[in-house]
User: Fold Claudin from Zosterops lateralis melanops.
Amino acid sequence: IAMMTTQTGGLVTATLGWLGAILTCALPIWRVMTYMGSGMAAAQMVYEGLWMNCISESTGQMQCKAYNSMLEVTPEVQGSRAMVLTSLFTAFFAFFIALLGTECTRRMDDNDKKNRFSGVAGALFVAAGIVLLVPVSWIATTILNNYNPMGVDNMRRELGAAIYIGWISSALEILGGGILCYLGTQSQQDPYSKKYNVVKTCGPVGYAMKEYM
Assistant:
């Protein structure tokens, strides 16, 4: 029961990381740029993501527009798209493989095979978390290197919420995948199994008897 609970906890943790990775991919708030107006008040805010950007006016109106061409995005965004999608598909396959490895499934009766499936799923989740961590940290580093709090060009660049969600999601995938990998290496031996040795003796009337020790 304890192993089943741990296995389920690892799968839930990794799955939450996967769902967070989907949110990270979809949200257009990887990079936030604030254009300062008179009196250092925010006149316009631009949110940039992997697939679109949004412009928020000081009046409260927001307009979003998808990128129409690859030429509109920077090389790090192009590379991040590929790595994030790779992470999502890897976690997708890991999720279904992990279902085959859970103790509660009835698709397989062999516990050793279930453990092997859990180990493979865990390794894929860990790989997905690492692949997600790379683009998130890459874009975050680019933003921080260009960070200018004084806003010489009347523009302040900051990290968006998607960056933080990506970091948390990556950590959850790696943690949950690590738990599944650990459980996948554990042998499923019945602690209550007993080995019996057969000893032949003769009974009172001369018949052979078997004693189990």
The beta strands are 31-36, 42-48, 52-57, 62-66, 155-159, 198-202, 208-212.
